[in-house]
Amino acid sequence: MCLAVPGKILSIDGKNAQVDFGGVVRETNVSMVDVGVGSYVIIHAGFAIQVVDEEEAKETIQLWQEMLEQTSQEPL
Amino acid sequence: MFRYREEATAKKIIESLRAMDLKDISIMHVCGTHQDTLVKFGIEAMLKDVGIRIRQGPGCPVCVTTTKEVVEAITLAKSGVTITVFGDMLTVPTPIGSLADAKAEGADVRVVYSSTDAIKVAKDAEKVVFMAIGFETTSPTTAAVLLDDPPENFSVMSCHRILPPALDALFHMGEVKIDGLIQPGHVATIIGLRPFDRFSKDLKVPQVVGGFEPLDVMVTVYMIAKQLVEGRAEVENEYSRVVRPEGNPIAMRMLEDVFHPVDRNWRGFPVIPGGTLELRPEFEAHNARKVYEEIIAKAPVVREDMGGCRCGEMLRGIIESKDCPAFGKSCTPKRPMGPCMVSREGGCNISYRYRQE
Question: Domain range for residue A47?
Fold first, then answer.
């Protein structure tokens, strides 16, 4: 139920947008988010519920690595 | 593409957890999608090996919907009202059969993938009810169609639940040891981090909002373990690429405009104060419980517990599916005894799908 997947906005027409889910394009309601064409959004039950922060996404990976490298150096 | 499934990192996390020398740690999550990741990728077993036991709480919307609510929807369907519903709800058994049984007998029950699909059905059917289930991730999508001038023949039977009050109930009942909480990323996408504060401040429980890729879940567990080792109890956010601390204010405003919290039962729980969302009086003309009050009043009164089914205990995190004697024997996805075996987010269904032959 709370499954939600990322997709990329191709075009917007009022409350609805065409969203690319890795090749499959579906209509998605974007009334809950402030987005433009090219944004990545998280979609649940036909609605975009949030914009994916690409910088945060890259930083998350970086943080994981740093956190683990730090852990292997200092005994907990 | 991002590397959310890198095995080398997964191994490092497990070794870091092993070095923490944890014993008998119990971490609860409340989301079927987390359970799916934990079981599908064998993370649950890896964590057990380093002293961490994961328990699934009441994180399956289909599962926490009561037998009474399903019976009311079946009664409406049998009276000639078109019921639109998410597919997982279709085969939930009740003493008067399931929605699928009602459909087989001629009732108009249609599976939809969104609230907007239900609106489309209302354009070619006479009387349409959307049986709306789901937590805060889903309830704004119901609110959105109600705020967008829905057709007169469309109404909503709200079975929407609010997650944090169920956690209050679990702690209050005290049946299960909870050393840490994995909070559901997509509920937090809507409600933000603040509604979880009280469990850390008042009960000193470490919490981390987690994403759903295997490494998301593993790092989330690692962050909780680190809090435990360091004696901290805070709300941290592993899923920061999607979850903002304030949540989604547009969705929250939609929720507040349309719904208000009421006290109702959840499956496996007593009445949870403020744990269910009902339509505000302004939306009475689209509230199926008001529009079809007389038909719903005729719904048979049924027992909540389904004989031999231990879904209630599953939802409170007391047992695992393997502890139920019916699991995989008299209860399978083809012949489910209860919703935990029906829903793809139910603990029993997930264990059954990924079981080792």
Answer: 7-73
